[in-house]
Amino acid sequence: MRPFVYERAEEARSAVAAVADRPDAMYLGGGTNLVDLMRLGVAEPARLVDVSRLPYDTVGVRPDGALRIGAAVRNSDLAAHPAVRRAHPLLAQALLAGASGQVRNMATVGGNLLQRTRCAYFQDITKPCNKRNPGSGCPAREGDHRNLAIIGHSEACVATHPSDMAVALAALDAVVHLEGRDGPRTLPLTELYRLPGDDPRRDTVLDPADLITEVTVPALSFGGRSHYRKVRDRASFAFAVVSVAAALDVAGGVVRDCRIAFGAIAPVPWRARRAEEALRGAPATEDAFAAAARAELGQARPLRDNAFKVPLARNLLVRTLTELVVA
Amino acid sequence: MTGIDTRAAEGARSAQGIGQSAPRPDGVLKVTGEFAYSSDLWLDDMVWGATLRSPHPSALIRSIDVGPALAMPGVLAVLTHEDVPGDPFYGLERRHQPVLAVDRVRYQGEPVALVAADHPERARRAAAAIVVDYEVTEAVTDARRAAFDPACPRVHEEGNVLRHQPVRTGSVFEAPVVVSGEYEVGMQDQAFLGPESGLAVPAEDGGVDLYIATQWLHVDRDQIAPCLGLPAEKVRLTLAGVGGAFGAREDLSMQVHACMLALRTGRPVKIVYGREESFFGHVHRHPARMRYEHGATRDGRLVYVKAEILLDGGAYCSSSPAVVGNAASLGVGPYEVGNVAVDAYGVYTNNPPCGAMRGFGAVQACFAYESQMDLLAEACGLSPVEIRRRNAVSQGSHLITGQLIDAPAPLADMLTELESFPLPATTGTGSDLRDLPGGVSQTTRGEGVRRGVGYGVGIKNICFSEGFDDYSTARVRVEATPDGPHALVHTAAAEVGQGLVTVQAQIARTELAELGVEEVTLVPADTSVGSAGSSSASRQSYMTGGAVKTACEAVRERFRELAAGHPGLSPAELVERFGPLEETREYRHRPTRPMDPLTGQGDSHTQLALCVHRAVVDVDVELGLVKVVELAAVQDVGRVLNLLALEGQIHGGSAQGLGLALMEEVQVVDGRVRNPSFTDYLIPTILDMPPMRMSILENADPAAPYGLRGAGEPPTLSSTPAIAAAVRAATGRPLPRVPIRPQDIALP
User: Fold this and answer.
1) Is residue A220 part of a domain?
2) I need a surface site. Which of A109, A241, B459, B655 has the fewest CB within 10 A?
3) pTM of this structure
């Protein structure tokens, strides 16, 4: 591991200033991903600015019903929060489906959003990887890609985003609050992430000095009727093979509204707007759910060994929506 | 749930003697985190070793420049192959594995250079600063090509087939019913929790003392000493706390390295691998590709079996020849069949070296032959239990090697009992999520779930086979203390978590009860007593148990002579006046013979052990998820020494078999390991492992101490095919490969 300087930020402005002028400085949250990457040599910051003690460690509810989630809130605490469990069960479920109890006790909301892909080639510094080393190539296209993307990927990169929490937040129209070089600003979570295109270096649109301070989740009248479901290779402590976050508003057998996002099928938490569009006003039936899945997954371009994710994602979505009708 | 009564030991009874669930002396320390593992070793003046490893599966080494590392602060030594004081090669069966790579590397992770520094991080950085000029060469990664393509490059000059063991008997290879299949078993890791670690301390006599977590102190010493150019007596090993083994500590890892650095620097040197390095620091289970053809009569009686078993041994020999021997001799399972043509091959490639892992060659074959038995059952219209019962061996049967099964082997009865266990209730809507496929990931509420039931049978050889001079040594000393006679038991046997320390003390209490011995102390295992052999092949209760028993008997014999001559004295008085009484004994099992190189015939095995499993699974066929609802097992252990420890062995072995069936695989692409971490190499958690129902039989083996049968490995064999069969029953899919993953099951 490359030697680094560690400093603890006292407040947001000074943290931003500490990173803004140093291209080799990075923020440190819970460290559950970044420290691993430093051990692997994938990340080599010369300076770590620890932002986990900044005063962004509370969860609150605004008068308009929106959830305010501090960026330094630990995943365990967020999952356990009564307001989250009541109004947005899919978010609590997504958090609890991730990692292990120990990891969730350390991991922060901000860090969770910014974790890097689990693509084996990205993590192996002896291999080419366009994300790590632009222009070096993508061995995953022809190599081991069983758990990589089927949608939204590019010639240059087929990695997936590993977060569970971000999938639920993408479905919920969450907004990310930032402190940056030019002061505070906000960004819809779905616009935080960027598709790889021919430049897969950056997973997000953020400037390195941008500090996530808070995530807000607007009230959703039917948020209580929501689920996060995850397929993985063992019953706990494994990354998703495919996951779905969905919320459904049904009246008189017709879908009035819905929110849907997929995890582990794309380079970003994949908001399924085509599926949502197909569903609004449609009958709340398995056939309609399957048609909605097709509307979304029709864009899928699976690789040699991950075509199974297309029917898997479809089955998982149909299953999840069907249950929400019954619930 | 266990269906046996624990019987009291013969002769004098002891409250904590054999047959009792005596608590393990290291148990509380381990669960409270106070037990000192080898990674906890510490001396105030010690320095730290680090290893530079090859990034390439196959490359020539043009040059190594250690200068940049030597120039770094805190660095005390940087060593390459040129610094190996003695024999530059070591190995369990063939001494051809370089202590440090000489002019080429044959697998990713092969050690190339060593560093000692005053801080572990400095040592690692210095290792990274060593400049190695590699010329990358073509890596041989396909075992079939390595074995059979004459144009394939040779990994070693001897050729790529390290052993070919045929088994031939009979001449009829036609039958009314024929089933065939090709099967694959992925590369499994032992996944022990305590990484490779040890502490080497230079001694005043020019020798070295090594504190090390290993499975066999003496075979380590006998490999280390020649590499160091030292006589064996100057290399003294003491067992440090072992955090699991499962075969992965049979080969050397950092032993020679730590000693070289200690001798060079004159300082104690500690080496501890991290988790990722550990994946490169030990051998794995051989991945296997197998072709089988079974012929039978219409009523399901086996006529013949043909099999080709290809085991990828990776870059160095390790214990591959013995693994091949097991795969061949046990290649058709515990079934009576008169006509056999089995060919088992061990092959060199540039993949990670493979060697010992719980089950040792019998595991891979078991998955294939049991899959075949299910195909045969279907073809003959019989139940999976009935096809096995009809062909089951029993006492008086012969193995395909011609060896007579001369001890009880009640396989048919075991199957009948297994089948009679009640089936677990059906899970479904409204069930606890943890009981459903996907568990707490909430992928199902019971919809899309289909149940399947499968059976598996396995046979494992216990103790070393094929003519190996297999023995263990025990020194037992009874001395007087104010609290009465006290026994000291000294062996070199490695406690690797299996509970051997408990069993040794139980045996001593039982055998020395008439001397009034209740307190037994286990002397730390080291090389100052004779070899105990390896803690592998399920052999230590048999071998070191036998040695302790024999040494105790010798002490007891002397005691009886003393008692006869002094009838007025109590046992305590006799020990006080004439003690200490000390005897050392070696114990050998009955001799075995090599397999004939052309026909495989010969009495190659010491003891045979059977285990049968029934697996009940729920499969979410739309999402490809499996929940093992219940595992049931019947195992014949000959004699229960410690029920609690035995149940732990059966649980653990079954769980390791479950892992191989459903998730565990070291993924190797182009000779490179893709998942060297416990985040990416998945082992079952408590949520994946179901409750077990088991029945333990005690049909004594008259040749073994107390009639016992080694118990650690057999459950690892049969749980894998039972689970695979259950998933096939639920899905209707052929599933010729383990581990089975969601993409193998999910229906479109």
Assistant:
1) yes
2) B655
3) 0.94
